[in-house]
Structure prediction request, 330 residues.
Amino acid sequence: MSNKPEILIARAIFPEAVARLEEHFVVESNQSDESWTQAQLVSKLRGKHGVLTTGGERIDEALLSACPDMKICANMAVGYNNFDLDAMTRHGVLGTNAPDVLTETTADFGFALLMATARRMTESEHYLRAGQWTRWGFDMFAGSDIHGSTLGIIGMGRIGQGIARRGAHGFDMRVIYHNRSRLEPRIEAECKASFVDKQTLLKEADHVVLVLPYSPASHHTIGAADLALMKRTATLINIARGGIVDDAALAAALKEGRIAGAGLDVFEGEPKVHPDLLALSNVVLTPHIASATLPTRRAMADLAADNLIGFLIRRAALTPLNPAAVASGR
Ligand code: GLV
Prediction:
């Protein structure tokens, strides 16, 4: 019988990453990418020492109580709102995420979504494909400018800073941001970004981009009252997490033309999308793909694998979220 630690890979990932993990562990891998219920996940995790999650698998008190051998949950995502980190710490289970390796790719996508929304690219493409384009029109699909406009970023971590740099240096935008804490002057200068309160940001920005982590405290950061502060010509971009925006309130604001458009990569209750959003043309909808380039997804899988190998074999994870879980032991 093998004395290698046992791990579960909860969703299909790069076969090379699976093979690397198999060098160190007894691996059960969901390479067929079946959808498991929470009960199935728990039953697969019984007796396992580690799991590679991809951001959608909920690691909570009930699961941890049922899986006492678990030592590490390595998320192949920078966000980790699928982890109940307090429960993990209580159970002595380390959580790791996948920061840094996706920063520039995700910032690229945030900017692409902003541009597609402001310049009405998908809406106009659908019109063309539907055979409705018969002649030129002076205001046909007139959008809003990006260059020289005001970019408001809520959540100024690494990805937010990447978007700020693109806006300030590439498009001559005035950048304002709101964050839990103000950034060091050196970073503000690099991003040419000024700290403002949330209300000022919503009132002054032509394009509002959300890049903050989801937590109960950030639930519905943007609701009806916040949307009411925005300019009628403004766009709202969410590449952060579903639940940060009240999707029903956003759909109502878009329907009534209270803001000009929205670009959404994440949704409350995804992969379900609020039906009112699906019915609107002034919203660009993408299926949570902001980090989806092959090199970046490879780097994310490698980092998650390195965390499992580093921790279970060498007792040192690369990107721990709750090192106290290990310090206290179990
Ligand atoms: C994607 O949403 C991530 O958190 O990496």
Remarks:
- Residues 55, 77-79, 102, 291 surround glyoxylic acid (CB under 6 Å).
- The chain has a mean pLDDT of 97.
- The two ends are 25 Å apart (CA to CA).
- The longest strand covers residues 150-154.
